From TrEMBL:
This is Cbb3-type cytochrome c oxidase subunit. The lineage of its organism: Bacteria, Pseudomonadati, Pseudomonadota, Gammaproteobacteria, Cellvibrionales. SUPFAM superfamilies: Cytochrome c (SSF46626). The keyword Transmembrane helix applies. Pathway: Energy metabolism; oxidative phosphorylation. It comes from Cellvibrio fontiphilus.
Length: 305
């Protein structure tokens, strides 16, 4: 902060305090008047025939205001509040700052939580996925960080995978789940409208529908297969079963990320999809991610379905 603005804040703050204190004492010097006085002044407020006298504050109220000024002066000496003034040393930690206070509270919290989370941080995810206490903690982490997209039950939403089935875009092993949580994922389904045109989009859609056994136009599906073999097999495979290394979904089952209706598939082919799973490694500590991975892994276990 520059010297000018520091002085500006100091002068403004002190001037306001002095003026308020003057008003308080000036009001205190006024005489108390009552009904017996013919010179009684009122504030002008009247309700149901009752008027309010313009009298000074009661003594107890006056002293309470006086205490607030004393408190303010002490506060401004100990803590930063006057421009660039940093306050006096506090508890052997140097001048007080809000950032320092936050860091101190965070350090205390980490010490406490390290005992709680540390118990599970070295345990295999497969074991934690069947540990009731660990799953309770993982569930709370999931609600705070994942439920907004995947739903509170992990059942997913359009564009956000269902975590309770066994259909994994990038793999459902503990290592793969940890990789997804730590580094995030970004889909890269390109738009095909410019290359295929509306006719090619319609034909490819019918072929994609046929892969999962859905109702489709057989004649268009034959033509669509040629488009698929030229443009889609690199990611989805010749058989359409996808590739977890690329995050390309399996098109032969009845599980759809954005929907399996013909109109939705056409939209996907026209405009592509670029869903993003945000990385959590900079948001959550590793012991939390470890528990969260265990909870996500547990959602698709057979004994939980």
């Amino acid at each position: 902060m520059s010297t000018f603005w520091s002085l500006w804040i100091i002068i403004l703050t002190v001037t306001n305090l002095v003026l308020l204190l003057w008003i308080l004492f000036a009001n205190r010097k006024r005489a108390v008047v009552g009904e017996e006085s013919t010179e009684a002044k009122t504030t002008g407020h009247e309700y149901d025939g009752i008027e309010e006298y313009d009298n000074p504050l009661p003594r107890w109220w006056f002293y309470m205001f006086l205490l607030t000024f004393i408190f303010s002066a002490v506060y401004l000496v100990i803590y930063p509040g006057l421009g660039a003034y940093k306050g006096i040393a506090w508890k052997d930690t140097g001048a007080w700052t809000s950032v320092g206070e936050l860091r101190g509270d965070q350090a205390k919290a980490e010490t406490i939580y390290a005992e709680t989370y540390g118990v599970y941080s070295k345990m295999p995810i497969e074991d934690l996925a069947r540990n009731p206490d660990a799953l309770k903690m993982g569930f709370r982490l999931f609600l705070n960080n994942c439920a907004v997209c995947h739903g509170s039950d992990g059942g997913g939403n359009p564009g956000f995978p269902n975590l309770t089935d066994k259909d994994w875009l990038y793999g459902g092993t503990p290592d793969k789940i940890l990789e997804t949580l730590n580094h995030g994922r970004k889909a890269a389904m390109p738009a095909w409208s410019a290359l295929l045109g509306e006719k090619g989009i319609a034909e490819t859609t019918e072929y994609v529908l046929s892969l999962s056994g859905a109702e489709h136009d057989a004649a268009k599906a034959v033509a669509g297969k040629k488009h698929f073999e030229v443009n889609c097999v690199a990611c989805h495979g010749v058989d359409g079963k996808g590739n977890q290394l690329l995050g390309a979904p399996n098109l032969t089952d009845d599980i759809w990320l954005y929907g399996g209706e013909a109109a939705t598939i056409r939209q996907t082919l026209r405009h592509g999809r670029n869903g993003v799973m945000p990385a959590q490694k900079d948001l959550l500590k590793q012991d939390r991610i470890h528990l969260l991975a265990a909870y996500v892994y547990s959602l698709s276990l057979d004994d939980n379905n």
